[in-house]
Amino acid sequence: MPATAGATATTRAELSALAQRAQSDPAALTQLRHIDTVDGRPYAIADALRGASGDELRRRLAEIASLAPQDGAAPSAAAARARAHGIVSSSRYSGSDLPRPFKGVLDSIGRWLKPARDWIRNAFGDVAGVTPGGSVTLWTITAALLLLLLATLGSRTLRDRAEAGAEARTAAARPGRQTPAELEHEADRAEREGDLEAALRLRFRAGLLRLDARHAIAFRPSISTREVSRALSSPEFDQLAALFDGVVYGGREASREDLDASRRSWDAVLRETPR
Asked: For residue range 107-119, what is the model confidence (pLDDT) as tens digits?
């Protein structure tokens, strides 16, 4: 401790002890206000305490008391560097190694593709250099073309699936080339038994066979309603095909009204088709 109230120099450990005592000892507070050098460095303790009283004074004294290191000596620069190295070397900052079984293969693929990647990048840069607006305009055009390509492919895929599904659903309930009369007889029996979808299918196939007999279409088990519509160009058949596809392909439950509408439409289609 400083020996007298007039002492002006002390150590950090002594400063801390004196600041703790000064919180309840006016004499220690007076000694503390005269300190201006700590461990050979200037410390304006009096300025730090000027104008403070009550709780504010105790808070400032507690801050001054906390300046001393735990072991009573100032930490060395080497110790500080060692502590910092230990912190940044922890797993929090360095991460951890995870298994990467495909790293070698992926690295090889990356090396093989590098020439192509470099060529594309250079070509893109050359084209962007002569395009108004530069790379922004070129990226916009590229994105628009890509979206157009994806939309075209998606539309074609959906159309192909729809046609394939329609072809499968226009096939007969049983294999073999039956006559239209035999199919309609089976349709009547299916209708009596309550299997309205089967009745609709059988009558649809009977109608297609009658169109084949009149050489309006070339029937085959996988023929689709779309093909028949193109061959006939008949609005009446188009309505009939929409009803059929809605039940067989669209999953809508067939009704008695659907069967009646199917009969009427087939009568109209066959009337407009020459024998």
From this structure: 888 888 888 888 8
